[in-house]
Amino acid sequence: MAASIKDVAREAGVSIATVSRVINKVDVVNEETKKKVKEAIDRLGYSPNIVAQSLKTQRSRSIGILVPDISSQVYPEIVRGAEDVANMYDYSIILCNSDFDMEKEKKYIKVMKEKMVDGLLYTSSSLEPEILEYLQSLQMKTILVETTDEAQQFPSVTIDNRRAAKEAVTRLIEDGHRSIAYIGSKKAKRNAWAKRFEGYEDALKEAGMPVEEAMTYYGDLKAQTGYNGITSIMSSGKRPDAVFCGSDEIAMGVINALRDHDIRVPEDVSVMGFNDIYEASIFYPKISTVAQPLYDMGSVAMRLLVKKLKNELAEEDHYVLPYQLVDRDTVKKRN
Amino acid sequence: MAASIKDVAREAGVSIATVSRVINKVDVVNEETKKKVKEAIDRLGYSPNIVAQSLKTQRSRSIGILVPDISSQVYPEIVRGAEDVANMYDYSIILCNSDFDMEKEKKYIKVMKEKMVDGLLYTSSSLEPEILEYLQSLQMKTILVETTDEAQQFPSVTIDNRRAAKEAVTRLIEDGHRSIAYIGSKKAKRNAWAKRFEGYEDALKEAGMPVEEAMTYYGDLKAQTGYNGITSIMSSGKRPDAVFCGSDEIAMGVINALRDHDIRVPEDVSVMGFNDIYEASIFYPKISTVAQPLYDMGSVAMRLLVKKLKNELAEEDHYVLPYQLVDRDTVKKRN
DNA sequence: CTGTTAGCGCGTTCAT
DNA sequence: ATGAACGCGCTAACAG
Q: Which residues contact A230 (CB under 8 A, 6 or more apart)?
């Protein structure tokens, strides 16, 4: 058994209260006794039992992070950003994978509450109103990452997905593309990804171009969706000269499918990705995409949360971080 | 404040001990009183305070996972496998990024001890003897993942990296390659990655081929290492007909560098990766590689740990999982 | 089958 | 400036 505060007290010949004081740097403890206590602590290799502290203080120095799936997409980067900041402030992070399953989310949230996490980072999962209400009923300090709730009741850290998508598609149009397909998340969904479809619509409408059902394909954000999507669109007789994708993986799938049909990228068809994951710059051809500052989103969100936990008021409650159009090798000017 | 066991006891008109009993399904509690208690629990929306439980039982139902960097390589997949199993047994996971920094590892291990994690999954980080001793002095139940310690003192879940590498390189030799470069982790390192270099040596020696310093390049496992590595090797006048890489990212870097030099893969040079990350099958050309069962490594390791925590004895303490040579498009027979 | 009680390790009044 | 004592919420003897 590790040494407890009692052992230290005995070793130093003082009361546990005094030990507690020097640990928490509270009150003015006599320099000399402070020294005695510190020596005792060193000698015993004592370190406070955080669980007991938590029970007493109602704070666990742990923060939950709920992601759909750590093994996919953009989450590792976000989590890394969050963890680095958490570590800086002596918080640990508890990681949960929800798979977009509301029941799983609920279960995890419940467990985190029981474990007295001090706060929660919630990355674009189901975002169901039921979950949001649950979070509020539990008084769980929550930051939304990568997404926002309709009512903006929760602090959030995002990029402007709609505007980013619009800008990307507008760029495609300015570059002379006249027939632009969309492959990505369905509009109906609540999360941020769906906003990219709206941006796609915005750009087309502004340019006076029609939004055709036959030029869109919905699915998850994996490569297979891209492969299937472009195959499906082309098999209906359409032949887009550009494809706007909801993720870089989708873009990769699209490019592979195109290659299998001996259609060249970008000579015949341009392809635009989204997110700018690491592999986008390594893929051949290098993928033109919309860069999200993933690491920053994680770290900014965690900073915001820490600030809230200290009850300092933040300058902002809704951070909208800058995105960036990254020109690489999958988009070609056609004018 | 959430309801406590006391509230439930009062509400149900029983003692807290009884409430505790129905929660923990211990003893035979009278059906009727059990029902009363359960109703009270529902009415109050009570759920036990895990922190208090932990303080009492010395178990937190949390398990630490130490990875070098969740945002890189293979870890998200391993972590996902581990988390799924952890969730199955009602454990949460605390994620830490060590960056191969021993001091950071130590700090994290200390915090996890303080938070009373029930066990630890340690993925190929520094693996310094000092850390290993520290772990033992803390009596931290630890499973090594992706690597083993020299003395096999810790249970582990790995593949046979050395044999896998040897087999891959032997395949290259059988396919008629006569000049095979290695780009990856340095031999001196303690972790599993270095074993791949030994396998490379084994294969060459067995075939009576020389291991040339000029045909090897050491670095981390990222794409840039591959790019720099092959560039460096070729600039020294060498012209390998195959490159064995310590990771798929390295392979990607190699392929990109080769392409920049107008050298075709696999027509001119074959490239073999390692790990079989998701993108290996999406890359162009699709990367031939050695597949590690990453998800399984995580889940098997967590299963093993859970078993140990229950003090059941495992059939095995050192799981060596099967790897698989995956033939795709970056290796060409030359005979 | 159920209730009483003693801690788990710590922070915090309230005295001194 | 320091110590004694209580309680955070819960489990585990021990009685009954």
A: A181, A183, A217, A243, A253, A254, A257, A258
**In chain B, which residue's Cα lies nearest the Cα of A52?**
B55
Gap from B233 CA to chain A (nearest CA, Å): 20
* CATH classification code of B62-159+294-322: 3.40.50.2300
Residues 57-86 of chain B within 7 A of strand D, judged by CB, are 57
From the Cβ of B27, is strand D under 7 Å away? no
A14-53 residue pLDDT tens = 999 999 999 888 767 888 889 989 999 999 989 899 999 9
Distance from residue A4's CA to nucleotide D10's C1', rounded to whole Å: 19
| 3-class secondary structure, A151 | coil
CB nearest to B259's CB, from A255, A278, A284: A284
How far does the CA of residue B172 sit from the closest CA of chain A (Å)? 24
CA–C1' gap, B49 and C1, in angstroms: 25
Best of B70, B107, B302 to disrupt the A interface (most A CBs within 10 Å) is B70
Same fold, B5-47 and B62-159+294-322: no
**CB-CB neighbours of B74 under 10 Å:** 25
E strand spans, B30-155: 62-67, 92-97, 119-123, 142-145
Q: Which amino acid is at B12?
A: A
CATH for B5-47 (3.90.1300.10, 1.10.260.40, 1.10.579.10, 1.10.10.60): 1.10.260.40
Q: Pull the structure tokens for residue A253.
A: 């799938």
pLDDT digits (tens, 9 = 90+) for A154-180: 999 999 999 999 999 999 999 999 999
Domain coordinates in residue numbering, chain A: 5-47, 62-159+294-322, 161-292
Chain D positions with an atom below 7 A of a protein C-beta are 1-5, 7-13
pLDDT average, residue stretch B152-166: 96
Give the count of beta carbons closer than 10 Å to the beta carbon of residue A281: 16
Looking at domain A161-292, does it have CATH number 3.40.50.2300? yes
